[in-house]
Amino acid sequence: MFTDLPEPELRAHRSTQTAPDDFDDFWDGTLAAARAAAPPGAVTVEPVDTGLRTVHVFDVTFPGYGGEPVRAWLRLPRGAEGPLPAVVSYVGYGGGRGHALESLLWASAGFAHLHMDTRGQGSGWSRGDTPDSGSAGPQAPGMMTRGIEDPHRYYYRRLFTDAVRAVDAVRTLPSVDPDRVAVLGASQGGGTALAVAALVPDVSALVAHVPFLCDFPRAVVVTDADPYREIGRYLAVHRDRAARVHRTLAYFDGVNFAARARVPARFSAALMDEITPPSTVFAAYNAYAGPKDIAVWPYNGHEGGAIDDDEAALAFLRTRLGA
Predict the structure, then answer these.
(1) Is 13 labeled as catalytic in the residue annotation?
(2) At what angle do helices 155-170 and 23-37 cross, to 10 degrees?
(3) Which of 187, 204, 268, 279 is catalytic?
């Protein structure tokens, strides 16, 4: 069943979210501190013997938030002459970078592909290898409320910074053309890619499929599904903290990043999605400041367009990156 507004109303929907006055200063300072903690060239790349004949796989470690080590897989097409266009991809909630033999599409299509691990996650449905060093404090189970009462301590400050530093890292690799880098993800990965498109304005393109972490004021009250429900559980106990929590979330809302991002973008939304209600996706899409398009899947849930989204994203990135 449809979970949200009819499509004509979705296309007109605007979020009530507003950006804090110091939103840009907050992120400028966060990224400057992370870059000062470790140079972008402090990247290790180790080959992995996978037995694959068409794709090279490398185990990568790069400096993320606070210079802390973050893991990733780098996959390159065998025999391709560089420097190559690159896709940096981010993972959905509860997942990590997975197995070395997974996620072969982008390298098989001729791109350099950096697949970033997700700090503190990676045991829900795919493997992870990067711990989260942040102090949690009181929180509901899951990651959504870890440090949620202070934007400086909130979990997604660290994750989004890691994601920006992944772009910094891939641009140092001799196999990559630093002027042809796109960011991509679905769900949490889509929300992360959207943030990076705003924070690294010279990336070439954005793909955000059914992006999570958008329009928090609406999201936390229109779905009872996790992960948004984690915030509701927290506020059901900490009844006096709602204003503080929503102030923190405003620094991480995809709506506020969308208003600052101008690179060509492809979104998708699914009208039967309970996890990222389509109105929250459209809130970010409608706020997006750059060239954009959106695929709408009327009969799908959180899987969105699945392989059809991938096929369309491949065509979009070939055009944007000249691959």
Answers:
(1) no
(2) 60
(3) 187
